[in-house]
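Could you show me some protein's one-letter sequence and the numbers that encode its backbone in two labelled lines?

___
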Amino acid sequence: AVLGRSLRETGLALPSTLVVVGGPAGDDEALTAVSGLVPPGTVVGRGNVAGTLGHRHAVAWGLCVELALRAR
C-alpha cells in the first residue's frame, strides 16, 4: 500500500499504463495495492526488461545502457 500511496501523493500525472519493475514487481500483492490506489482505468503490470531479463534487472540494465550512452 505504501508504494501505491506514495505514487498517488507525488501529484504527478499518471499514464494510462503503469509498468512496475524491480524487486517489488515480483510481488502480486504489491501490484494489487498499486492498482487499487491509482486512478480507475490505469493498467498496472510487470515490465520485462530488454525483452528477456524479467522485472528484477531493471536497475542493472538501466545503468549499463546509461554507461554505454556516455561512452559514445
